Amino acid sequence: MGIWNEPAGNTPVTGAQLGGRPAGLPPMPASPPWQAPTDVEQGLYQARTRGDWAAYFDVLAATKLYHSMPREVADQLDGRVQRSSYWEPRTGTYCYAFWTHGMLPVPVPDQVFFRGGLGWIAEEWARSDVMLAVNPGTPCEAFFSATPAHRDIWQEHARRAPTDKGGVLRTLRVGGPLEGEVARGLACGALLCVSNGSIWNAMGWHGTGYVSERERLKEWWGITSHDDWKAAQESLLQGTSGSVWEFVLEIRRTLSRQYGGLIDVAHWRQATERVMRHNMERVGGDESGTADRADDLEAEVRRVQQLIGRITRYEARFRADGLLGEGKQVRSTLSWNFGRASKMARWGLGARYCDLEEAEWAVIRAGRVSRVNYKSWEDFSVGYILGRCLHFDEEEFGSWYQDMLDAHRILMTAPESPWVTIPWK
Predict the structure, then answer these.
(1) Strands of 139-266, DSSP E
(2) Residue % of the chain over a pLDDT of 70
(3) Is the pTM of this model over 0.85?
């Protein structure tokens, strides 16, 4: 992903100190306490207030930075990105403005953002006479010269920065819903947010940047338009995928209502086979192809019996890891769809396949259908994790499972977690 810079010829910059304030400006006045949107902005604010610019760059190096570009331009550049500068009268220079996630505006149709790390930004920087402006106009702003020597320092901070592997709860404390229907719907996607290290309650989603969000939806979902996004969103909200999983789980739920308590696996298998054979008899038809249908039925019975075995083995592991209590079983995997629907709403907004109003309504619906089908956040979570494992994990109990287990534990225990602060009912 290359950088397109505007033609040279802007007014040269004056010299600047490494400390983030151009030479000649008066000392900063004492700042009043400020409620930062996230821990990132809080870290920048504290470092700026102390004048600790090494710490400031440590925070920058450990996060992602966003730069805006016109959507029309982005659509023409085939995945490439373009920087544009602005005149900053306080520094007397042109600047490239980069923003941390908590400072991003609500998505609008004609302005989009691309995202990059500090090391990548330093490597692709082409104009030594243009300064770096971080969150300009905010209490955590700072301005930095961008000569090769300065950019070497940025790179050094980037090399020392910890690798962002996710597995952390991130909350937008200002500008994101913390209660109500929108917050509840957003929290239905919190497992994936924690696993990826993204902000769980960011309704105004920019994600990985406009181009990357579009690439994600095309690669994983085949989505390239508003109609594609809407069809995928509706399918998830209606729980139409993974129907065979729901078929076998519904049989077990029915048996549980009839007999009470845990259902023996052998009983479950026998009942499922009876239902399948009964359904085949009801379909009936003429005698042509009867043998083929019988062979197909036998093969399908074997596949479903194997599925029941997989589910029981996953449940045993869930109990061993504390996901399921003793005497508990997974009721449904519909939450695998509903949780992804919560995220799909935001992915569509980041890719500009929908607007904020459409995305918010989809998030609300995800919360509502989840409440109808589940009894608690824990109940919702185990259904989501089982669905994800049945789809991806192949009983390896690898990252597809372990990442969700870690996210579940964080969400069930962290004081700031929406699963702790937002009641299910």
Answers:
(1) 142-144
(2) 90
(3) yes
